[in-house]
């Protein structure tokens, strides 16, 4: 079992609310990356849209070169409901100096060329509340290979070790920070962000579903993110008022 019941001891509200890793799309094999290549090209991405396997693995090797023992991971987006990796402990956690922001524009997954999506990234400033996952030492190598195939496909994130405060004490955790040099990095105001989330749709569903999943996890845990509250409220207003159909 990749996500044992004991993992929820500190966050009982999440039991039954996280997809079992063995059922996750994101436990990707390298062969399945070929399917992603086809989807990317169909949505206007160039042939070299993603890192080569060798380049991706080099970033993983560099970050974990001196790591020993269990590995903590800070989750702030879709990892909070679909981690896809072997976890034996879950805590709530807070990261200072960075905040959650819908700043990653995507034309695949929950977006397409005609209906691009915005996904969450960690951007400079403020703070971010999320989850800290503990991966046992004996599977760190395999599980981070899976994680890298999900988060480090195109170099839009920078894998970074950060201090995360949890109710049980501070931990050093791996997280994925937005790469501001990426061509997919955008800084939009609330209105622009809400309108793109309202329309974003791709082969893996809608951008709205992503936002609602995120907001639901924060609500379940009693974690407050005023930006997410305001964004969800505005998106719901836009959809309820039919503003997109009339604009």
Structural overview:
The protein has 247 residues and is an alpha+beta fold. It has one domain (5-246): Gamma-glutamyl cyclotransferase-like (Hypothetical upf0131 protein ytfp, Roll). It is built from 7 helices and 7 strands. The strands form 2 sheets. It has a 5-stranded mixed beta sheet with strand order 2-3-1-5-4. Strand 6 and strand 7 (205-206) form a beta hairpin. Helix 4 crosses helix 6 and helix 5 (207-221) crosses helix 6 (226-241). The longest helix has 16 residues, at 226-241. The chain is globular, with a radius of gyration of 18 Å.
Return the CATH class.
Answer: Alpha Beta
Tally of distinct domains? 1
Lateral arrangement of strands in the main beta sheet: 2-3-1-5-4
Question: What is the helix content?
Answer: 25-40%
Measured distance between first and last alpha carbons: 49 Å
CATH superfamily: Gamma-glutamyl cyclotransferase-like
Q: Uncertain regions: pLDDT < 50 for 5+ in a row?
A: none
The number of helical segments is: 7
Provide the CATH architecture. Answer: Roll
Q: Give the integer mean of the pLDDT values.
A: 92
């Amino acid at each position: 079992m990749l996500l044992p019941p004991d993992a929820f001891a500190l966050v009982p509200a999440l039991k039954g609310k996280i997809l079992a890793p063995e059922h996750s799309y994101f436990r990707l094999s390298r062969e399945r990356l070929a399917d992603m290549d086809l989807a990317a090209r169909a949505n206007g991405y160039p042939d070299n849209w993603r890192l080569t396997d060798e380049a991706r693995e080099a970033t993983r090797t560099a970050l974990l070169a001196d790591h020993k023992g269990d590995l903590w991971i800070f989750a702030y987006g879709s990892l909070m409901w679909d981690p896809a990796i072997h976890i034996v402990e879950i805590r709530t956690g807070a990261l200072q100096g960075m905040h959650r922001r819908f700043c990653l524009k995507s034309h695949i997954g929950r977006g397409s060329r005609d209906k691009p999506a915005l996904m969450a990234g960690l951007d400079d400033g403020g703070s971010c509340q999320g989850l800290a996952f503990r991966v046992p030492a004996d599977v760190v190598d395999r599980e981070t290979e899976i994680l890298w195939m999900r988060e480090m496909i195109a170099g839009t994130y920078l894998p970074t070790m950060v201090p995360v405060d949890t109710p049980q004490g501070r931990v050093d955790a791996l997280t994925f920070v937005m790469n501001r040099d990426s061509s997919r990095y955008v800084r939009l105001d609330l209105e622009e962000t809400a309108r793109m989330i309202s329309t974003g749709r791709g082969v893996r569903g809608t951008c709205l579903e992503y936002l609602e999943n995120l907001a639901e996890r924060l609500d379940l845990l009693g974690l407050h993110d005023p930006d997410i509250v305001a964004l969800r409220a505005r998106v719901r207003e836009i959809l309820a008022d039919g503003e997109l159909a009339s604009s």
